[in-house]
Write a structure and sequence with these properties.
The chain is of the alpha/beta class. It has four domains: 3-155, DNA polymerase, domain 1 (Orthogonal Bundle), CATH 1.10.150; 159-256, Beta Polymerase, domain 2; 273-335, Beta Polymerase, domain 3, CATH 3.30.210; 345-578, TIM Barrel (Alpha-Beta Barrel), CATH 3.20.20. The protein has 24 helices and 17 strands. Strands 11-12-13-14-15-16-17 form a seven-stranded parallel beta sheet, with helices on one face. A five-stranded mixed beta sheet has the order 2-4-7-6-5, with helices on both faces. Strands 8-9-10 form a three-stranded antiparallel beta sheet. The N and C termini lie far apart (71 Å). The model has no long low-confidence stretch (mean pLDDT 92). The structure holds 2'-deoxyguanosine-5'-triphosphate, calcium ion (CA) (2 copies) and zinc ion. One calcium ion binds next to helix 11. Residues 423, 448, 450, 477-478 line the site of zinc ion.
Length: 584
């Protein structure tokens, strides 16, 4: 029964209109809301059975309110009310989003405490000015504090490494849920879209698209909002629903019929900028493109819509992989059939950045190697930390040599090639953390900045360039140093870094650790203009991490990289040409 939800909608609109000092409408809306609340029969059922005519028979509901109800039941929102919210004074729009705050309360807060923004409100709560206000009290102060916390959680972006497994889980949970209900729905076509499908490094919300015929759509929505991890249902309609999960992430689900599936997939994958460009091309060709399909402008006849491929084809474009859809030249390239063949998950032949329990890894050398072999790799580089990394249990020379001995032994037990490597600290003067006689024995040397992040840009650039000029260094690891939510990238002139790397034949790492993704897409695009080669590495600290290659791969694809650009797609015989110290 959705009567409460629909009533809420009108109460809220009434609040906003009142706040804007509109005269009679708020009363009419409140009256309608009351009627709906006390209806005794499910308004959705009435509408399904009798259409709009059934709605206008309810006392207090005229034509225009009935239109709003119908729109809400069909689409999950009322365009006019959305616009109302947008027009509210700045700051109030955000306050409106806080659960438990309507326009009336917001007005009161503004008139009595001068609260106009979210941060004003937080202040009022912390200083307990709210609980003394008539109509609020201690309890509602606490509730608001909790609602704000939830709002902020759901409005901060989450990183790809968290969003991707979460979306996978929700998709399979939804499939299961729909299969297990009495009115079983077969969700064979369901996929995440939005920034997640484009594998962007951070995700605002998760968007999911499912195919179902009109009569089944609502049942799918019912399954969705009743998933066990759903904490709050923001809206529920037959084409769109939105929820917030317990852990704070917002999820949108859209359900479309098969003739629109491809068009909706294209539209909701975005990016917005890519879509706008595409729509312009459609218009130029006498078509109309929407999330429902591609239509002839004149007759309105649908000419594509069930698959993405046919939409791009009809627009005279090669199929554009989601990761490229950022309006960064991909549409032009697709028009000339000049898109790169992007690197794929199956292209990898090895992992060149792996830790073990010799330094800060959790698993043993043997376990890590064994797993890499199971993954089908041809080679793996063991790269524990160098001696200055005391917090990470960096290896003193003796311990490093002991590791070499163990590697030699294990090499006889495994098919996979085991490279003796190290993730060597780039010290503040740009020198490397082991003496030359050690460095020259290593098969592969990664250089990393792990300390002294606060150096001024000129110093940091000098430091890294010095390291890149060191003939023992092979790979610059996590080149920007940023850590999601913890540390910004250090100040450095990438122009100079990439120049020095290219001049000295060094490889740039794309670190796949979800908290790093470094280089990211933009820096990859920049680095590529210098003709640089890359390696995509997991920087694994446990066997389970070896699977995180997908995140770095996403950045690489967003950076337009081909297999050829990434050295750990090369067979060992060719890798030797890149890292000259490798043994035959
Ligand atoms: P996010 O969630 O901030 O990480 O980014 P997206 O790209 O997932 O954006 P979202 O969730 O707001 O919308 C999903 C997709 O829907 C977006 O990628 C493209 C499409 N879309 C949303 N708003 C518009 C719009 O105003 N115009 C067009 N053409 N497409 C839009
Ligand atoms: Ca999204
Ligand atoms: Ca969304
Ligand atoms: Zn590192």
């Amino acid at each position: 029964m959705r009567n409460r939800e629909v009533a809420e909608l009108f109460y809220e609109a009434a609040d906003i209109l009142e706040y804007q000092q509109v005269e009679w409408k708020p009363r009419a809306y409140r009256k309608a809301a009351q009627m709906i609340e006390n209806l005794g029969e499910d308004i959705e059922k009435i509408y399904a059975r009798e259409g709009k005519a059934g709605l206008t028979e309810i006392p207090g509901i005229g034509e225009s309110i009935a239109d709003h109800i119908a729109e809400y039941l069909e689409t999950g929102k009322v365009e006019k009310f959305e616009k109302l919210k947008e027009k509210a004074p700045s700051g109030t729009a955000e306050l409106m989003e806080i659960r438990g705050l309507g326009a009336k309360k917001i007005k009161k807060l503004s008139d009595t405490l001068g609260v106009r923004t979210l941060s004003d409100l937080k202040n009022a709560i912390v200083t307990h000015r709210l609980r003394r206000l008539e109509g609020f009290g201690e309890k509602s102060e606490e509730n608001l504090a909790r609602a704000i916390e939830q709002y902020e959680k759901s409005h901060s972006r989450i990183n790809l490494g968290r969003a991707l497994p979460l979306a996978d889980e929700v998709v399979s949970a939804l499939k299961r849920q729909c299969e297990n209900t009495s009115s079983k729905v077969d969700l064979s076509k369901i996929i995440y879209t939005g920034s997640l499908r484009r594998l962007k490094e951070t995700i605002g919300d998760i968007d999911i698209l499912a195919e179902a015929e009109k009569g089944e759509a609502l049942r799918v929505m019912n399954c969705f909002v009743s998933l066990p991890d759903v904490e709050q249902v923001i809206l529920k309609g037959s084409t769109k629903s939105s929820v917030i999960l317990r852990e704070g992430t917002a999820i949108d689900l859209r359900v479309v019929p098969s003739e629109s599936y491809g068009a909706a997939l294209q539209y909701f994958t975005g990016s917005k900028e890519h879509n706008i460009e595409l729509r312009n091309i459609a218009i130029k060709n006498g078509y109309k493109l929407s999330e429902y399909g591609l239509y002839l402008k004149e007759s309105g006849k649908q000419i594509a819509g069930s698959s993405e491929e046919e939409i791009y084809e009809r627009l005279g474009l090669a199929y554009i992989p989601p990761e490229l859809r950022e309006n960064r030249g991909e549409i032009k390239a697709a028009g000339k059939n000049a898109l790169p063949k992007l690197i794929e998950a199956g292209d990898f032949r090895g992992d060149l950045h792996v830790h073990t329990d010799y330094s800060e890894g959790k698993d043993s050398l043997k376990t890590m190697i064994g797993k890499a072999e199971v993954l089908g790799y041809e080679y793996i580089a063991i790269t524990d930390h160098s001696r200055s990394q005391k917090v990470a249990n960096g290896l003193e020379i003796e311990k490093l040599k002991a590791q070499w001995e163990e590697i030699d032994k294990l090499s006889k037990q495994f098919r996979i090639k085991i490279l003796k490597g190290s993730e060597v600290d780039i010290l503040s003067d740009g020198s490397l953390d082991y003496p030359d006689e050690i460095l020259k024995e290593l098969d592969v040397v990664l250089g990393s900045v792990h300390s002294g992040f606060a150096l001024p840009e000129r110093k940091m650039t000098e430091r890294i360039v010095t390291a890149l000029e060191n003939r023992h260094l092979d790979i610059l690891a996590h080149p920007s140093g940023r850590l999601f939510g913890k540390r910004e990238a250090y100040a450095v002139n990438f122009e100079k870094v990439f120049e020095a790397a290219a001049a000295n034949g060094k490889v740039m790492e794309i670190n796949s650790q979800p908290s790093r993704l470094d280089l990211n897409d933009e820096l990859i695009l920049h680095a590529k203009t210098f003709g640089l080669k890359f390696c995509i590495s997991t920087d694994s600290h446990a066997v389970s991490d070896l699977a995180s290659m997908r995140y770095g791969l996403g950045q690489a694809r967003r950076g337009w990289l081909k297999k050829e650009d990434v050295v750990n797609t090369y067979p060992y015989s060719r890798l030797k040409e890149v890292f000259k110290k490798l043994k035959p």
